[in-house]
């Protein structure tokens, strides 16, 4: 018997990544890893950073193309089978993750078309709304009212109504294009859509990703009648069923076996990129949190019980390990850092140099980094706000964007409760120890950089491994599943002097935020306008 292989895929906003892990007892390693950038590899779809340009009449719309994701999956499998050099006869199981909340609308032909992956005529909507969409405020209000208010919806589904969540998106589609809604037989999440491609039939979803729809009852982990009724008519039959996250939902279909020569390996339910990252960074027990500095910045951790955030800023999803996960998402993540870097003509070294050249606390200068409409807190009219910060001072603006992001993450995660003493930092931005020093100082916690930059894809591979073991009747603990793959580097420790500075600045940041949102007085004169740099 050869060494078992497990494949994890992550279809994110900008790319498809696949990771193959090898597991031989306690000897474990990543045997292959490859990313395909959507814009660069598939320019014909016209995406920019993985997103289609919004229609001029609706600039808050953000969408992508399902057929792009299909082609990327085919290309990845081609590369895996021709370039990896692995003995893929040992491939035991495959799982995946995808950007959350995005939805794919299929007509009655889809069920028969998955077998040959010919989905061009199987779409009842050519475009898939994705998580960057913030165009459904009216639908959020209608759903909230129908369910009995924001608190009721949060308690029921784990989140208040969010513009990017799939329920409000479905409601908007149904209102705007009732004929196309009527022709829709199945609405998949990006994750369950891609899982369907692998098994050659409509795949179920699971509680991690289903919780990102405002449609699942968090307690029962099944669709909620009340939420379904508040969203669109005759919706339940159009949705995938919800199965436990560790379910084997089928095997690689004959399409993959015949064309790519892979074995009919088990396919494990796909989840959202954040629940998958929770496993990929090794957060399989409560008490620690992770902050991922990616396209969006996210803060997340495992919860044992379905505690919710009634301030309305955060989400609770199902966790792949069976419990729940808390997640706070900031849309202005790496895109905001890049906007500041580019606005001042810097490269990453220059950005780091600027951070080093400025004092913690930035002499009181604050930036609310809302380059794009923000999710946390909800800001629909984008625009950077500066308080006591000169827009022409490049170095101070670099520090301000990083401090602003870290303070927002600390302020909006307070509801999780337990004091955080250890943070796992992941994503592209976590390579920068100067950024991590600000994180450590603002959160007053040790920050452990993780060298897994693709935690969602790794999490998917680990979930495939776990589910295969369970399927064979082997008892395996989650600590054992992740061991050998997650090795945090030496921590960045908080600097007590800076911690004190930030405790003060945090209050000022909260006051600036309240002022910018029209909920409080001006904390200090605003030096520059809200114009972008
Ligand atoms: C989470 C969210 C994003 C997407 C894209 O709620 O909207 O993190 O999953 O990564």
Quick take:
The chain is an alpha/beta fold. The chain has helices at residues 38-41, 66-83, 110-113, 137-147, 150-157, 166-176, 178-182, 190-199, 207-210, 225-231, 254-260, 273-280, 334-343, 348-356, 394-411, 433-443, 455-471, 478-482, 496-516; strands at 5-11, 15-24, 27-37, 63-64, 91-98, 103-106, 128-129, 186-189, 216-217, 222-223, 248-251, 266-268, 271-272, 289-293, 297-303, 315-318, 324-330, 366-368, 385-387, 422-426, 446-449.
How does this model look, in words?
With 533 residues, the protein is of the alpha/beta class. 35% of the residues lie in helices and 19% in strands. Helix 4 crosses helix 6. Bound molecules: D-xylulose (XUL).
Architecture blueprint of SSEs:
Elements: E1 5-11, E2 15-24, E3 27-37, H1 38-41, E4 63-64, H2 66-83, E5 91-98, E6 103-106, H3 110-113, E7 128-129, H4 137-147, H5 150-157, H6 166-176, H7 178-182, E8 186-189, H8 190-199, H9 207-210, E9 216-217, E10 222-223, H10 225-231, E11 248-251, H11 254-260, E12 266-268, E13 271-272, H12 273-280, E14 289-293, E15 297-303, E16 315-318, E17 324-330, H13 334-343, H14 348-356, E18 366-368, E19 385-387, H15 394-411, E20 422-426, H16 433-443, E21 446-449, H17 455-471, H18 478-482, H19 496-516
Parallel strand pairs: 1-5, 5-12, 5-13, 14-20, 20-21
Antiparallel strand pairs: 1-2, 2-3, 4-7, 6-8, 9-10, 11-12, 14-15, 15-17, 16-17, 18-19
């Amino acid at each position: 018997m050869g060494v078992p292989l497990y494949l994890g895929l992550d279809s994110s906003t900008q790319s498809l990544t696949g990771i193959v892990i090898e597991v031989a007892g306690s000897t474990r390693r990543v045997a292959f890893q490859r990313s395909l950038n959507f814009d660069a590899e598939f320019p014909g779809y016209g995406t920019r950073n993985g997103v289609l340009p919004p229609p001029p009449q609706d600039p808050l719309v953000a969408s992508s193309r399902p057929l792009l994701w299909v082609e990327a999956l085919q290309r990845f499998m081609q590369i895996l089978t021709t370039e990896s050099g692995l003995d893929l006869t040992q491939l035991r199981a495959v799982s995946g993750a995808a950007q959350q909340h995005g939805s794919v609308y299929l007509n009655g032909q889809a069920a028969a078309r998955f077998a040959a992956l010919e989905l061009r005529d199987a779409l009842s909507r050519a475009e898939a709304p994705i998580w960057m969409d913030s165009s459904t405020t009216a639908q959020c209000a209608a759903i909230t009212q129908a369910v009995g208010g924001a608190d009721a919806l949060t308690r029921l589904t784990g989140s208040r109504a969010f513009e990017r969540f799939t329920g409000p998106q479905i409601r908007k589609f149904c209102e705007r294009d009732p004929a196309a809604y009527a022709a829709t037989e199945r609405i998949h999440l990006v994750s369950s859509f891609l899982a369907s491609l692998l098994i050659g039939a409509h795949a179920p979803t699971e509680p991690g990703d289903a919780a990102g729809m405002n449609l699942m009852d968090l307690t029962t982990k099944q669709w909620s009648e009340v939420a379904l009724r508040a969203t669109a008519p005759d919706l339940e039959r159009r949705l995938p069923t919800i199965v436990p996250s560790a379910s084997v939902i089928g095997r690689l279909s004959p399409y993959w076996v015949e064309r790519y020569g892979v074995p009919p390996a088990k396919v494990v339910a796909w989840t959202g990129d954040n629940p998958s990252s929770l496993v990929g960074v090794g957060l399989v027990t409560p008490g620690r949190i992770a902050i991922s500095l990616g396209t969006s910045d996210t803060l997340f951790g495992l919860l044992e019980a379905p505690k919710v955030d009634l301030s309305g800023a955060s989400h609770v999803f199902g966790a792949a390990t069976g419990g729940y996960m808390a997640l706070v998402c900031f849309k202005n993540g790496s895109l905001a850092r890049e906007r500041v870097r580019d606005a001042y003509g810097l490269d990453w070294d220059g950005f780091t140099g600027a951070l080093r050249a400025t004092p913690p606390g930035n002499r009181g200068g604050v930036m609310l980094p809302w380059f794009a409409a923000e999710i946390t807190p909800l800001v629909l009219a984008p625009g950077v706000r500066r308080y006591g910060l000169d827009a022409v001072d490049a170095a101070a603006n670099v520090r301000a964007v990083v401090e602003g992001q870290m303070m927002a993450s600390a302020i909006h995660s307070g509801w999780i409760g337990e004091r955080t003493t250890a943070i796992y930092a992941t994503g592209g931005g976590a390579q920068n120890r100067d950024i991590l020093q600000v994180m450590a100082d603002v959160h007053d916690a040790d920050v452990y950089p993780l060298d897994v930059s693709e935690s969602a894809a790794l999490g998917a591979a680990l979930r495939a491994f776990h589910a295969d073991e369970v399927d064979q009747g082997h008892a395996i603990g989650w600590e054992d599943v992740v061991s050998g793959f997650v090795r945090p580097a030496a921590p960045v420790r908080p600097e007590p002097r800076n911690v004190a500075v930030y405790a003060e600045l945090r209050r000022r940041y909260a006051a600036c935020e309240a002022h910018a949102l029209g909920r409080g007085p001006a904390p200090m004169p605003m030096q520059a306008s809200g114009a972008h740099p």
